């Protein structure tokens, strides 16, 4: 059967015949894996549900318990303070590292090298036990006994301050690299155009380069925020008072450790899910002027 | 009409023995030039001849290794005291650059700002002029390049020709003493070249001192007061554009013009 042998077909019919009704490729493998995964997952859920070592009434009873909710608030506070601090430190370090000032650049490089190298857990423990290192803190003239201000370490370094400082300082080292990557991703011509208009390097950085770098900085920063929120649980080793500390405290009394870890997992999952949605909105907003 | 005839003879830009190397490669091998006030000087030459590099030395986007460049009497990039040269500070350098307009091949509009914000940026944040006044003048500048009604568009929403005209308006908003054009139409679709050249022609007519690196031979012939042909980091030939183009004295110039004519 050829087209030439069917002279009665009009152009319109022919056009209709050209519309595509192809049979899609069948993904049998995909179906098979879906079945296998469902079975395995089902078995695991059943094993958890029927586990006699787990008492779900304890999970339910503690989900909204006062100490847990108070711990959640501290987790938020810690994360917020450490993130703001980390971003500020990161921007400062990134700009310093890229500046023509060799001293600033060296300081920034040293900072990133040191605080990326020390594990966060160790950093938190050192800050939490700062009074073992220095029993007083103050401002004075180096290499003399002259002090203008001096206070007991434990009066200033509360566990919250120690925890927030450790998290922010650690976060700053990572943010520095993210911000630096963003700055380097901005077309060099932007800086030249700014210079040609008479903008000094600092002004060009903050008015022209950084706002455009934001588009590249935001997605990894969202990841950092989520990571930081979960890392704040490490603060429980110095009894930082956040969610994980609260969970540990209750578990120490009722000995239902796994149930209490379920409570913690529930809350971290919820917060991370909300943050992920927020991240998507912010990303869209930062794309201004590009994706229209 | 062209920029021809409305110049006087005070030099706006003077280059003496300008040399510049990138690593071991010497791209400028001693350039001596004078651009008079109100004059349009066009640079022609093969790529790699050093014409763009020279232009970028005039507002010190590139540093020079030897020689002197002066714009409106003051030394570019240095100050001279008791016979010694001192590097300008960032602040002094920025001040100097703010008086020299530059238009780039790739436009380099600030991508996160609208056309109007691009034009207002430097007068607002470099000169710190009052917002009301800057706004009025920015709108005038955009009107001057034929872009009224496009004030609130982002660069990505404008055609190449429109972007380049915004870039010209942005440079004009600083009232520069001289305008530098670095192959302003080379990145444009052929049909958009005309609108940019028209704006430049109007600028020349208004008496702006201009240095233009270009491949537009017709523009150089019509608008240019002087034409400089460069090759291998040296000025091969310079003079009245018509004479250089129609009756080139150097074999290298003849060869270049023959090659471009056959394209």
Automatic annotation (TrEMBL), chain A:
Membrane topology: Multi-pass membrane protein
Predominant location category: membrane
PROSITE patterns: ABC_TM1
Superkingdom, natural source: Bacteria
Pfam families registered for this protein in UniProt: BPD_transp_1
Keyword annotations of the record: Amino-acid transport, Cell membrane, Membrane, Transmembrane, Transmembrane helix, Transport
Domain ABC transmembrane type-1: 72-279
Subcellular localization(s) per the UniProt record: Cell membrane
Membrane-spanning parts: 28-48, 68-93, 113-134, 154-174, 225-248, 260-282
Record PANTHER family: L-CYSTINE TRANSPORT SYSTEM PERMEASE PROTEIN TCYL, MEMBRANE COMPONENT OF AMINO ACID ABC TRANSPORTER
Family, as annotated: Belongs to the binding-protein-dependent transport system permease family.
UniProt-recorded name of the protein: Amino acid ABC transporter permease
């Amino acid at each position: 059967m050829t087209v030439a042998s069917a002279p009665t077909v009009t152009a319109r019919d022919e056009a209709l015949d050209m519309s595509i009704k192809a049979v899609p490729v069948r993904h049998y493998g995909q179906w098979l894996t879906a079945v296998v995964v469902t079975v395995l997952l089902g078995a695991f859920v059943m094993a958890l549900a029927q586990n006699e070592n787990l008492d779900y009434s304890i999970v339910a009873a503690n989900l909204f318990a006062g100490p847990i909710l108070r711990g959640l608030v501290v987790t938020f506070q810690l994360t917020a303070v450490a993130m703001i601090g980390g971003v500020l430190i990161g921007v400062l370090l990134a700009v310093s590292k890229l500046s023509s000032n060799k001293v600033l650049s060296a300081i920034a490089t040293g900072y990133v090298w040191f605080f990326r190298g020390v594990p966060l857990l160790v950093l938190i423990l050192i800050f939490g036990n700062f009074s073992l290192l220095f029993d007083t803190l103050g401002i004075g003239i180096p290499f003399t006994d002259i002090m203008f201000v001096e206070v007991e370490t434990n009066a200033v370094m509360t566990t919250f301050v120690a925890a927030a400082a450790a998290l922010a300082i650690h976060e700053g080292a990572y943010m520095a690299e993210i911000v630096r990557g963003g700055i380097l991703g901005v077309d060099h011509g932007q800086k030249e155009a700014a210079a040609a208009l008479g903008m000094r390097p600092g002004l060009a950085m903050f008015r022209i380069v950084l706002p455009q770098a934001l588009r590249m900085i935001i997605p990894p920063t969202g990841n950092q925020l989520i990571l930081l929120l979960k890392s704040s649980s490490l603060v429980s080793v110095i009894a930082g008072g956040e969610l994980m500390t609260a969970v540990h405290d209750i578990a120490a009394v009722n000995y239902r450790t796994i149930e209490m870890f379920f409570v913690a997992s529930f809350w971290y999952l919820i917060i991370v899910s909300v943050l992920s949605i927020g991240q998507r909105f912010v990303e869209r907003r930062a794309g201004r002027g590009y994706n229209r | 009409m062209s920029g021809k005839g409305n110049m006087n003879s005070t030099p706006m830009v003077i280059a003496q023995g300008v040399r510049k190397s990138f690593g071991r490669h010497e791209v400028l091998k001693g350039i001596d030039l004078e651009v008079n006030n109100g004059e349009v000087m066009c640079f022609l030459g093969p790529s790699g001849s050093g014409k763009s590099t020279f232009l970028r030395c005039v507002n010190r986007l590139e540093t020079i290794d030897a020689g002197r460049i002066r714009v409106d009497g003051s030394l570019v990039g240095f100050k001279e005291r008791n016979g010694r040269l001192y590097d300008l500070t960032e602040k002094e350098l920025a001040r100097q650059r703010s008086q020299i307009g530059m238009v780039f091949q790739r436009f380099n509009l600030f991508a996160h700002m609208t056309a109007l914000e691009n034009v207002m940026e430097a007068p607002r944040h470099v000169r710190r002029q009052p917002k009301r006044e800057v706004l009025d003048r920015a709108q005038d500048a955009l009107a001057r390049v034929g872009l009224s009604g496009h004030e609130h568009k982002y660069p990505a929403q404008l055609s190449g020709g429109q972007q380049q005209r915004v870039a010209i308006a942005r440079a004009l908003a600083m009232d520069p003493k001289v305008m530098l054009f670095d192959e302003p139409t080379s990145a444009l679709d052929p049909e958009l070249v005309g609108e940019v050249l028209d704006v430049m022609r109007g600028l020349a007519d208004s008496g702006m001192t201009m240095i233009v690196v270009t491949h537009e031979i017709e523009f150089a012939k019509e608008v240019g007061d002087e034409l400089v042909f460069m090759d291998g980091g040296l000025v091969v030939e310079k003079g009245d554009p018509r004479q250089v183009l129609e009756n080139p004295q150097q074999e290298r110039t003849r060869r270049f013009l023959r090659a471009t004519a056959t394209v």
